[in-house]
Design goal:
The chain is an alpha+beta fold. Among the domains are: 48-254, no CATH class; 462-575, no CATH class. Helices cover 27% and strands 18% of the residues. It contains 15 helices and 20 strands. The chain has helices at 14-21, 59-69, 78-82, 110-117, 194-210, 222-233, 250-254, 360-376, 433-450, 456-460, 464-482, 500-505, 535-542, 548-558, 567-573; strands at 25-29, 48-52, 84-86, 100-105, 131-135, 153-158, 169-175, 211-213, 266-272, 283-285, 290-295, 298-303, 309-311, 320-325, 331-334, 342-348, 352-356, 395-399, 407-412, 424-426. The strands form 6 sheets. Strands 1-19-20-18-15 form a 5-stranded mixed sheet. Strands 9, 10, 13 and 17 form a 4-stranded mixed sheet that branches. Helix 2 crosses helix 6 (222-233) and helix 8 crosses helix 9. The longest helix has 19 residues, at 464-482.
Length: 575
């Protein structure tokens, strides 16, 4: 069955939004000391689709499967029928009813895309779920979609799920999705609310009560047997089940109850870090990655720990597809355009370990690490960057592979209004791991700084020296939490990119010159006799200040510091 629903959307304030998006950009300048350490060849391949598969979970195919199990068709096997007990008076044709819809959404704008993906209880895909994937491990873009629009989005939802009425979509298929009982589901969930879960379980229970299997081999589970039969008759039964996919052989009809045991998907994702000694392996775990795993219309999510390990809370009987997205609730990496940064892992029955050694996904990984740090980890009390709310979407971080010369990154303040444009752009492909990390921190510091004002006009009127010196200071302070040897950017006297924040915090004016300093600010210099401020104090003093000297004066007025008499000298040294 293919029923279609079409809806249109009208969004107000588009003209105002266009004006705001044109607001100024804060650019990060790359120090010439940074050297390239990896190849500049982009290795992500776009996904290619093959033939459409017959859907085993369609209501029609599930009805055929049940008819086969209960002996009501010419294709049924007598031996199988003897193992199935059907309650007297049961019309098996009425037992299978629609539990889910298979859906195709057609967002016309980034705002519409944000709207549908704000429903995090659903699993979203940029490719149809009932097609073969012939090649490619990256994203898919439907060729019929105009270049200036997001590609179609696919998902599945219970028939009770509330869907947005303002974005065009169509129902591709009505589904019956039998979920087997799961004794441990501690790390993920179906995403259904209480009403949806109740209605769904009632439909499954109706089948379980009316049709009962009578053999120990079958574990008395009609739903598992039903699913396997549907997979068999549509030619989708896994080869690794040791069951033939030949729909006509007697072997397939008599061995159907010999289902494989359940197993729990797991794995580990690490990335090559250019700052780690190769003798120690060179690979580090990536914390916080969202890994999706499943097949057809049964998907779950797991998250990596500090070592890169992940483990599904749900067990599966057949092979699963592993997929991962370089995103979290607060931010999402883009490949530079509309497409999300994601990776399609293997389809297998077993553990997936992925060591990212080079290429575009190594680049994504280090940007993700920095963004995850700023949003979810210890940042010494600093304010977080722009938040994902009802009115604003995830912060989009564009991971560009183009060379922009001495521009390492860009923050677009217009992205804070609704979030329809890429808020941060990173241009550090091919750089050392810590430099990619540091540039990402720098641009996110601009985003956090903007959030103090929430007004593009006010933010854009702040002196560039203030904005860039602050972002460079946060870049130094947070990056060295991960890379202790990181010294930040070079000192800029008379320019906008100064080391003022490091000089306000450090105490290196008394160290011996032979000792190793922690940053590129002044050392044993009469210009810098200041120390002892914290990064959060400097951020609080920054709030509401637009000029170099007003920031300085607010630092003095807000805090008692025994070195504050030297503030004028230090700030003047960078003018």
């Amino acid at each position: 069955m293919k029923a279609e629903k079409k809806h249109s959307i009208l969004w107000g304030g588009v003209l105002l939004l266009t004006i705001l998006i044109s607001s100024c950009q804060d650019e990060t300048r790359v120090d010439k000391l940074v050297t390239s350490t990896q190849t500049t060849e982009v290795d992500e391949s776009e996904m290619q689709l093959g033939e459409q598969l017959e859907n085993p979970y369609s209501v029609n195919n599930m009805k055929k499967a049940l008819a086969n199990l209960t002996g009501n068709t010419s294709t049924s096997n007598a031996k199988i029928a003897k193992m199935v007990n059907v309650a007297e008076g049961t019309n098996t044709e009425e037992l299978i009813t629609t539990t889910h819809y298979y859906l195709k959404f057609k967002p016309k704008t980034e705002e519409e895309l944000d709207l549908i993906k704000s429903d995090t209880t659903l699993y979203w895909f940029d490719h149809p779920l009932d097609y073969e994937i012939t090649e490619g491990d990256g994203t898919y873009r439907d060729p019929e979609v105009p270049e200036d629009q997001p590609t179609y989005q696919y998902t599945y939802a219970t028939i009770d799920h509330v869907l947005p009425e303002t974005v065009e979509y169509e129902i591709l298929e009505e589904l019956f999705v039998p979920e087997e009982p799961e004794e441990e589901d501690i790390e993920d969930s179906s995403g259904l609310n209480e009403e949806e879960q109740t209605n769904y379980e009632q439909k499954l229970s109706k089948v379980q009560k009316a049709v009962v299997l009578k053999t120990e081999e079958s574990n008395n589970d009609i739903l598992a047997a039903l699913e396997e039969e549907a997979l068999r008759i549509t030619g989708n039964l896994d080869q690794d089940t040791n069951l033939t996919q030949d729909k006509t052989t007697s072997q397939a009809k008599t061995d159907w109850w010999r289902r494989p045991s359940k197993w729990r998907p797991s794995g580990k994702i690490t990335v090559w870090d250019t700052e780690v000694n190769e003798r120690d392996g060179g690979y580090i775990g990536i914390k916080g990655i969202k890994v999706r795993l499943g097949n057809w219309f049964k998907w779950r999510t797991a998250f990596t720990d500090a070592n890169g390990n992940f483990r599904s809370g749900t067990r599966y009987r057949y092979s699963v597809r592993y997929k991962m997205d370089w995103e979290r609730h607060q931010f999402a990496l883009r490949d530079g355009g509309f497409s999300s940064a994601q990776y399609r892992g293997p389809y297998k029955r077993g553990t997936w370990d992925w060591s990212i050694s080079s290429g575009v996904h190594q680049y994504y990984a280090h940007i993700f690490r920095a963004a995850y740090h700023y949003y979810y980890k210890d940042i010494k009390g600093l304010r977080r960057p722009r938040q994902n709310t009802f009115w604003r979407s995830q912060l989009r971080i564009g991971a560009w592979t183009q060379d922009k010369g001495d521009i390492g990154g860009v923050h677009q303040s217009g992205s804070h209004f609704g979030g329809l444009v890429t808020g941060v752009k990173i241009y550090r492909y091919g750089a050392a791991s810590k430099d990619i990390y540091a540039t990402t921190i720098h641009e996110l510091a601009h985003s956090s700084h903007y959030e103090m004002y929430k007004n593009p006009v006010t933010f854009n009127n702040i002196e560039s020296k203030v904005k860039e010196s602050w972002a460079r200071g946060v870049q130094w302070e947070l990056t060295r939490m991960v890379y202790p040897d990181y010294k930040g950017g070079a000192r800029s006297v008379g320019g906008n990119y100064t080391a003022i924040v490091a000089d306000l915090i450090d105490d290196d004016f008394n160290v011996d010159l032979s000792m190793r300093n922690t940053n590129f600010g002044f050392i044993r210099n009469t210009n810098d006799q200041v120390s002892g401020y914290t990064i959060r104090q400097l951020e609080d003093a920054l709030n509401g200040k637009k000029t170099w000297n007003s920031w300085r004066d607010n630092i003095r007025n807000k805090y008692n510091n025994e070195t504050e008499e030297h503030l004028n000298t230090l700030f003047s040294a960078y003018e």
